[in-house]
Design a protein that fits this description.
Blueprint lengths: L3 E6 L4 E6 L4 E7 L5 H15 L7 E7 L5 H18 L2 E5 L1 H12 L5 E7 L5 E9 L9 E11 L1 H9 L3 E3 L1 H5 L15 H13 L35
Parallel strand pairs: 1-4, 4-5, 6-9
Antiparallel strand pairs: 1-2, 2-3, 6-7, 7-8
């Protein structure tokens, strides 16, 4: 068995895939919310079993960096780091939005610009913009380049920018269709597309060494503040 690349993305749905460097051999996706830690390892084993391989055949791990929910991203990236560390495999990271943009570009060969909006909760969306090149053939595959780095905003605040793109996809667009009418069915990042987007970015010379999660904002649960006494003396002993 040739050395394989494992893709893991937990920015929204849980998605895993295995590639031999030329094509995606197997993939799985689970769109249930808040089940990342329960299903991820079983899904990884399932795609490996489907290809007749084992974890020992993995030479590279690609982790989706989000943006996405804190717990979900942490589960996916910690798993990616752990597998790569145990196996001595190469580890690279890529924004999950890139995977959706690439798949949208491949589905819509006439599109020259892509907008992606993901559900960020708090009535906001994570978003990014892309330019597309290539005709979608073997001789001229589709490539995406970010023209606006991932951000977080209220849908109404960025509607004009996103709707100006040829294609608008992502779970955020489907959640707020009256403000961000989607032009495609894509909702979540697919790990197979994440792998292909990562390899394409590496060919262009992008640095993919970071696997730090793209949270973009503070956690919902803030750290407790130091309690002060009623006299304003803090926690000093009497």
């Amino acid at each position: 068995m040739a050395k394989l690349t494992l893709g893991i993305d937990t920015s929204g749905a849980v998605s895993v895939a295995v590639s031999d460097g030329c094509q995606v051999l197997a993939r799985r996706m689970d769109e249930r919310a808040r089940h990342h830690d329960e299903v991820l390892l079983d899904m990884i084993d399932a795609v490996l079993d489907e290809t007749g391989s084992s974890r020992a055949d993995i030479s590279c791990v690609v982790g989706g960096r989000g943006p996405g929910p804190f717990t979900g991203l942490r589960v996916g990236l910690v798993t990616a780091r752990s597998i790569a560390s145990v196996l001595g495999a190469r580890l690279i990271g890529l924004p999950s939005l890139d995977a959706i943009a690439l798949e949208a570009a491949e589905r819509c060969p006439e599109a020259k610009t892509i907008a992606v909006a993901l559900d960020a909760r708090r009535r906001e969306v994570y978003w990014a913009l892309y330019e597309v090149s290539g005709e979608g053939s073997d001789a001229s595959p589709r490539h995406i380049v970010r023209t606006f780095e991932p951000g977080v905003a209220a849908p109404a605040d960025i509607a004009s920018s996103l709707m100006a793109a040829d294609v608008l996809v992502g779970s955020g667009a489907h959640l707020y269709p009256e403000i961000l009418p989607p032009t495609g069915e894509l909702r979540h990042a697919d790990a197979g597309s994440l792998i292909r987007a990562a390899f394409s970015a590496e060919e262009r010379g992008e640095d993919l060494s970071s696997t730090e999660p793209l949270y973009l904002r503070e956690a919902d649960a803030a750290k407790p503040k130091r309690r002060k006494s009623a006299l304003g003396l803090g926690d000093r002993p009497a």
